[in-house]
Every structure is written in C-alpha cells, then in structure tokens.
Amino acid sequence: MSLFDKAKEKLSANKDKVEQGLEKAGDKAKEKFGEHSDKIDQGVQKAKDALHRHQP
C-alpha cells in the first residue's frame, strides 16, 4: 500500500475530525486575514468537498 493510499484511508476514517480541523483553520485564517474571509470560506468548502468526493 502506497503512502497516498494510507493517507486516504486515515482521512476517510476520521472525516469528522478533519472537517473540524478545516473549520478551525478557516476561523484562524479569518482572524488574521479578515478582509479575505470570502476566499477563505471558499477554500474551506472546496477542501470539504474534496474530502467527501473521495469516500470509499
């Protein structure tokens, strides 16, 4: 099993935690770069979409 396959397996097993981490990261980024909050929200949403797109 390749490293990429292992990473996908771990991500899919912990999707709730990954989503929480994405939300926290987005909130921290908005604190620092508030004027770009719309772009940050778009990036967080794209990351969540990618997470759910690769469900086993």
Write a short abstract of this structure.
The chain is an all-alpha fold. It has three helices and no strands. Helix content is 82%, strand content 0%.
Tally of separate helices = 3
Mean pLDDT: 89
Q: How many extended strands?
A: 0
Q: Specify the structural class.
A: mainly alpha
Any low-confidence stretches, pLDDT <50, length ≥5? none
Strand content range: under 5%
Q: Helices and strands, in N-to-C order?
A: HHH
Radius of gyration: 13 Å
Number of domains: 1
The biggest beta sheet is recorded as:
none
The assembly state of the depicted protein chains is: single chain
**Helical amount among residues, as a percent range?**
over 70%
Shape summary? elongated
Could you tell me how far the N terminus lies from the C terminus, measured between alpha carbons in angstroms? 15 Å
How does this model look, in words?
The structure is a single chain. This protein has one domain. The chain has helices spanning 3-13, 15-32, 37-53. The model has no long low-confidence stretch (mean pLDDT 89). The two termini are 15 Å apart. The chain has 56 residues and is mainly α. The protein is built from three helices and no strands.
Key attributes of the depicted protein:
56 residues; mainly alpha; 3 helices; 82% helix
Helix and strand topology:
Elements: H1 3-13, H2 15-32, H3 37-53
